Amino acid sequence: MEALSFDLAETTVRALNAELHDPTVKSYEVLHPDGAHAVAAGIDTGIAVEVRGHVGYYCAGMNDGGTVTVHGNAATGLAENMMSGTVRITGDASQSAGATAHGGLLVIGGSASMRCGISMKGVDIVVGGSVGPMSAFMAQAGRMVVCGDAGDGLGDSIYEARLYVRGTVGELGADCVEKEMRDEHRAELAELLAAADLPYAPDEFRRYGSARRLYHFTSDHSGSY
């Protein structure tokens, strides 16, 4: 069956999302998004959505099982609170991409701005370029792969998320440290790079994670917070 096409120059995001929440076909194409907000938000079934152009805030937010591909850039909150499924964009993402996401795979072909993966709770995020300051802030679980550089404050107050960076890293955030790269880490990194269709070798990356000094606040350590 051919994809059902929605032209946002002729219809509304509300009408598009109403169809995606109660789908009549398996594949959709969205034309002329022109920076519209909340495109393809709230999908909860295994449908595929191809968005032809740039999107605004909260594209593919709360995705649970859908496959959303954006052929362009995305504004703040891309794939925020995703539960499962896949979100890919070919361009760059603004702030807080993948924020609070519990699962699924987010692939950003270009670079991501600050706070990428903030409070991530199990999602896998692969960024083809660089990420801005305070990325993976309070990251609780999941994996983030950065093929370019990472700005200051990477992994600030991190819990158990695993971070892999191929390029340079600015000043690390509180309680984030570089860790040993073992065979199991190279194996999972190879799987993530393959899933994102990126050609890099795991040996080009370094791993970062929690030093586990901030799990329990004590007055003796108050100067570290």
From TrEMBL:
Superkingdom: Bacteria
Record InterPro entries: Glu_synth_asu_C_sf, Glu_synth_lsu_3
PANTHER family for the chain: TUNGSTEN FORMYLMETHANOFURAN DEHYDROGENASE, SUBUNIT C (FWDC), TUNGSTEN-CONTAINING FORMYLMETHANOFURAN DEHYDROGENASE 2 SUBUNIT C
Organism of derivation: Actinomycetospora corticicola
Protein name: Glutamate synthase domain-containing protein 3
GO molecular function: oxidoreductase activity
Gene3D superfamilies per UniProt: Glutamate synthase, alpha subunit, C-terminal domain
CDD domains reported in the protein's UniProt record: GXGXG (cd00504)
